[in-house]
Structure formats: C-alpha cells, structure tokens
Design a protein that fits this description.
Strand 9 and strand 10 (about 130) form a beta hairpin. The protein has a 5-stranded antiparallel beta sheet with strand order 6-7-13-11-12. The mean pLDDT is about 95. The chain has helices at about 30-45, 90-100, 115-120, 190-195, 205-220, 245-255, 275-280, 310-330, and strands at about 5-10, 20-25, 45-50, 55-60, 65-70, 75-80, 80-85, 100-105, 125, 130, 135-140, 145-150, 170-180, 180-185, 235, 245, 265, 270, 290, 295, 300-305, 340. By secondary structure, the chain is of the alpha+beta class.
Length: about 350
C-alpha cells in the first residue's frame, strides 16, 4: 500500500476545489483500511475517508492528516439482495439493478458518488431514499477496530441523516452495503417532475424508463455530471430542505398575503419547505454570481465553481445565502456538503 504526500484533492471532488492532503492512500481491501488507520495512529494525525467526492467542499489549505480513498470493489448478488462494496460507483450500480428489473432505487439514478456514501447521508431523490432498501451496512468500528454488520434499524435513518453523519459521526467507516430490492417492481412515479415527464404516456413506465427520465431531468437541472458542462462543477444540492413547525410556517405564509408558499408534510406534524424557493425569495436566483462562485443556471440549489474558484469563494456565497434567509424567514439553512479542513 502506498502512502503519498501532498496530493491535491481538487481532482477528487466534483467541485474541482481543494488543497493538498498531507498524506493520501487508496484502500482497495479491508486489510488496506486497517493498515492505513494504523499509519495515521502511529503518527497521531487526523483521518478523513474519501468516497466519490460528490458531497464535500475541501478547504484551500487542504487536510493536515491522512486521506483514505475508499476503492473497495465488488457486487455479490443473492436473489433480491445485492451486497455492494463501498467504492463502487453508485449510478453504475443503479443501472446494474434496474437492468435486471429490480426496483427500489430507480429514482436515485444519476446521483454522483460511491455506494459507501449512500447510507451515510441517506441519499434520496424523486420520491425514494436508500433507507427504504438498505438491509444492512458493513462497517469498521474505529473504537474497537472490528468489522460489524449493522441492520437498517441500527443505522438510525431519517431525512438526509443516519448515525454515520449524526450521533456516531466519525466512529464507523462503511465498507459494504447490502440492499434488498423487489423483482419486477412497479416503478415509483410520485414526484412532480416525474409525473409531468410521463403525463402524456398511457402505459405504466418501466423501471428503466423512470431511471432514464430521472437522469434527463437531473441533467436539465445541472445535477447530472456531464463533461464540459460548467454547471456540473458543484456538489449537487447545497442546502437541505428545512423542516419547521406549523406555527413558524403560518407566520411565513401570512407574510405572503394569500400567495401560495410551497410546502410538504414532514414528520411530527411539521412542515418541509423547498430550500430552492427560499433562495429565490431571498434574491439568489439561477445564474447568480459572486466572483468566481455562483449558482447554477439550471438549478437554484446548486452552488458552482464558475472557474478558478477556491473554497473561500464558495464559503462566501454560502454564508451570504444563509444570512439572507435567516433575515427574511428566520430559518437557518443547513448545508449538505461536508466541510473538510
């Protein structure tokens, strides 16, 4: 196993931003992972686990410790269960399952990143989330240095959350995820964009047709990575859709004097608001630019590297948006990407 020094991280992220890692290694096996952690602990340096690089913003100073890029590969299938190594490309795996007519993740097509990141963030889009299909997650427990199989219930899934990015952040490293799908399932077409896409078609869309439609919709919004498209230099949706109390929502709705405020029901009788709508109302529209950082011309929620941007540029735009939304709505937006420094 090689341990490299001062490796720039920009090329490992979809933002194309990031300073160097003091040390860098690729783990292709679980034994590699154990060796790399030992390397970091012997030198008493911090550790960062890198997957597909699609949900992080690396600081301009880089990372002072060891970055381990998860490169474990392999897919094992047992009937409707698929056990997938953490380093596998997520979108390619979606195609692999859909091509065999297994349903459960067809609406999650086109999402960049690797399999290992999906349970961490409880990835979701277009009416589905991985929590609905995760059977178990194999992890390395950094407290005991033992490999464990955690059930879906033990992962503590919630909207864009799990124990991996919440209560037990930093304790576990995901090495493999086992999903349970439905053979010959009826494709999910519950999201508004998908309903519009298929509204003129009489036949029930297939799983393959839905996943293809999702990729097209994502591309139209700059959320599907296409080489040469400047709107793709992003981390996807930068802010989570906030969940607020009904009282808070009523106060916001009253300020719009009869105009419809888009909203969706959330758990515990709360209300979810589209973060994109909040940005628009706060004056941050598609194509907005702040120096070398900006907002995608295709989607309000995608903060982009307009060319030559550094992490400080993206952070300045992020902070400006957060401050304005707080001022206008008393809502504190929560960024989705992980900040690495």
């Amino acid at each position: 196993m090689q341990f490299l020094e001062q490796i720039p991280l920009a090329s490992y992220t979809t933002f194309g931003i990031g300073g160097p890692a003091r040390w860098f290694a690729e783990a292709q096996t679980e034994d590699d992972l154990i060796e790399a952690i030992g390397f970091a602990r012997e030198r008493d340096i911090p550790l960062f686990i890198l997957g597909g690089g699609s949900n992080l913003l690396v600081s301009d100073t880089g990372f002072p410790g060891l970055v381990i890029r998860i490169a474990l590969k392999g897919i094992d299938q047992n009937a409707s269960q698929f056990s997938v190594a953490a380093g596998e490309d997520w979108d390619k795996f979606v195609s692999f399952a859909v091509d065999q007519n297994y349903g459960g993740i067809e609406c999650l097509a086109g999402i960049p990143g690797s399999v290992g990141g999906t349970p961490v963030q409880n990835v979701g889009a277009y009416g589905q989330e991985v929590a609905q299909t995760v059977h178990s997650v194999r992890v390395l427990d950094l407290q005991t240095m033992r490999f464990l199989e955690l059930s879906a219930a033990e992962c503590g899934f919630a909207y864009r959350r799990s124990i991996f990015n919440n209560s037990q952040r930093g304790r576990y490293i995901v090495t493999r995820v086992t999903y349970e799908f439905k053979k010959d399932a009826v494709a999910v077409v519950s999201y508004a964009d998908l309903k519009r896409y298929f509204q003129d078609k009489s036949a029930v869309p297939t799983l393959s047709e839905v996943s293809s439609a999702v990729r097209q919709i994502r591309q139209q919004k700059g959320m599907y990575i296409v080489p040469g498209d400047p709107d793709c230099r992003s981390a996807g949706s930068f802010f989570k859709n906030p969940v607020i109390s009904r009282t808070h929502f009523a106060q916001i709705a009253a300020n719009f004097d009869g105009f419809q405020v888009p909203n969706y029901p959330a758990e515990n009788d709360q209300v979810k608001l589209p973060a994109a709508w909040l940005l628009d109302q706060a004056g941050f529209h598609k194509g907005f630019a702040l120096g070398r950082a900006g907002i995608s011309s295709k989607h309000t929620l995608a903060l982009i590297n307009r060319g030559g941007a550094c992490a400080a540029d993206i952070a300045a735009l992020r902070d400006a948006i957060v401050a304005k939304v707080v001022e206008k709505f008393a809502i504190q937006l929560e960024p989705e990407p992980v900040w690495v420094e």
